[in-house]
Amino acid sequence: MIIVMQSHCSPEQVENVITFLEDRGLNGHLSQGVERTVIGVVGSVDITGSNGVTPELGESLEGLSGVESVLRVSKPYKLASREFHPKDTTVKVPVACVAGGSVTIGGNEVVMMAGPCTVESEQQLFTTAEAVRKEGAVILRGGAFKPSTSPYGFRGLGEAGLKLLDKARKEFGMAVITEVMTPTDVAMVSEYADMLQIGTRNMQNYMLLDEVGRTRKPVVLKRGMSATIEEWLLAAEYVLAQGNPNVILCERGIRTFEKMTRNTMDISAIPLIKRLSHLPIISDPSQGTGSRDLVTPMTLASLAAGTDALLIEVHPNPDVALKDGAQSVTIDQFKTLMPQAHAIAHAIGRKFVTD
Ligand code: PEP
Ligand code: MN
To answer: Which residues of 213-320 form beta strands (DSSP E)?
Structure first.
């Protein structure tokens, strides 16, 4: 249910509506636009099976001063829906190397995030960071806590990897995105990272979603490899419902019967998410294809489809990478990819942050 307030309502009227909801065990999430103020009503099902969001509640709310109308949101996800927030959400990330000291994801500018799949050593990370920064990437990716399908695979350097990312951030002025895998690690990873990545395997780890929802860090929520769009948006809803509005969705390919690629990159998810949700949507063509030769074409396709940012794996020598070498582009390939990416962005009336 969403409550649309009258255009000139007072802060007291808004407060009064929120208190009215809280008295009934519900939460009111405020979305304050230039033209209208909307309050999203959410509450979980209680033991009696009624969640308090009843038709009678709608009638009572309509009677409160300052309320213009009350609408039922037809989708199971509420705060993530376009209905709740008609305008695009933008997420600000502090980035020292750009003018103004930050970038906005979800606006007209496109953001390049690049770096190794996994932090392996200072030399590997710094060589990659320096190269991708030079080509226009402003956010450095790199896994320190790696979800490994096999328990015998490389699982990352842990906190030592985070320390290297932090050092690279200072050296190159880039922001850092890295994966957090458990609720108990959220506070520690947040100390080093500017953006928290929730991996495909954890998209439905609800305790983890709750925990990142309690921070205000930008959260990049990867699509579960077998998740429907609706399940993905409901996962985003968990983070939003805890009060963190800084959620960015990331299409990274899904499992299908096709075996020639690691995953099937669902490019259509990009415009579809834009229709269903106000949240920014970004694209990871590396996990999406599993093959470095497919990364450039899928980058260009994602841009044409409207992606707000790209997350690309780059390695100075992918053949010896400890993880995901097959899908990591070389530094030379990244250099060739960037001007093509710029051309597509321009063709659809967008530009890269660094243009
Ligand atoms: C990654 O970005 O390296 C990664 C493990 O991503 P995903 O969770 O999408 O597989
Ligand atoms: Mn990877």
So the answer is: 219-222, 247-251, 281-283, 309-313
Residues whose CB falls within 8 Å of the CB of residue 126, separated by 6 or more in sequence, listed in order: 168, 171
Candidate of 219, 221, 248, 284 to mutate for ligand 1, largest count of ligand atoms within 8 Å of Cβ: 284
Rounded to the nearest angstrom, the distance between the alpha carbon of 231 and the centre of ligand 2 is 22
Distance 57 CA to ligand 1 centre (A): 43
Query: Where are the domains positioned within the chain?
Result: 2-71, 91-352
Q: Of 3.30.210.10, 3.30.1370.60, 3.40.718.10, 3.20.20.70, which CATH number belongs to 91-352?
A: 3.20.20.70
Question: What tokens were used for 7?
Answer: 């255009």
pLDDT at residue 238 tops 90: yes
248-270: pLDDT as tens digits: 999 999 999 999 999 999 999 99
Residue whose Cα lies nearest atom 3 of ligand 1: it is: 117
Rounded to 5 degrees, φ, ψ at 182 are -135, 150
Question: pLDDT of 35-61, one tens digit each?
Answer: 889 999 988 765 555 556 777 888 999
Phi, psi of 270 (to 5 degrees): -65, -60
Q: How far apart are CA 134 and CA 215, in angstroms?
A: 31
204-216 per-residue burial string, b: 16 or more CB within 10 A, e: under 16 = bbeebbbbbbebe
Which ligand is closest to the CA of 314, given by its number? 2
| Weakest-pLDDT range from 70-79, 120-129, 286-295 | 70-79
CATH of domain 2-71: 3.30.70.1140
Sign, CA torsion 239/241/244/247? positive
Ligand 1 mean position to 236 CA, how many Å?
17
Q: How many Å apart are CA 268 and CA 295, to the nearest integer?
A: 17
- Poorest-confidence range of 73-82, 94-103, 254-263, 297-306? 73-82
Determine the distance separating the centroid of ligand 1 and the alpha carbon of 261, expressed in angstroms. 15
